[in-house]
Q: What sequence folds into this?
């Protein structure tokens, strides 16, 4: 948890509202994505969470100390799901959050796992 925005809140919004719609429904379930659900999540649900996180993260560095922590991993996982579903963090509106995400996914352990996920999804 970072301040008042737990990672579970991000998962709650990104998981069913974006990742499930864009990745799970079309591929394994062979169902159509409901873009209205995605749009509502992107435009209404995520902005307050992202605005808060923009004020909490420091940009291209870990949240605590100088090493990756569970907090970093907990925050980057739903953001990776967002990326895998074709969305991104607006670097103009939220430069620190975007830099934080880019920094974390560039870490070798996360970058390797992300590449495995992309391969699994055929990308």
A:
């Amino acid at each position: 948890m970072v301040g008042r925005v737990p990672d579970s809140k991000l998962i709650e919004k990104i998981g069913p509202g974006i990742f499930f719609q864009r990745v799970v429904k079309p591929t394994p379930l062979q169902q159509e994505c409901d873009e209205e659900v995605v749009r509502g999540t992107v435009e209404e649900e995520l902005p307050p969470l992202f605005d808060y996180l923009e004020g909490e993260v420091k940009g291209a560095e870990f949240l605590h100390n100088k090493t990756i922590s569970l907090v970093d991993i907990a925050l980057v996982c739903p953001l990776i799901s967002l990326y895998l579903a074709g969305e991104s963090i607006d670097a103009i509106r939220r430069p620190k959050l975007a830099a934080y995400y880019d920094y974390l996914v560039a870490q070798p352990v996360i970058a390797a796992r992300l590449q495995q996920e992309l391969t699994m999804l055929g990308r």
Observations:
- The chain has a mean pLDDT of 93.
- Residues 7-120 form a domain with the Glutathione S-transferase Yfyf (Class Pi); Chain A, domain 2 fold (CATH 1.20.1050.10).
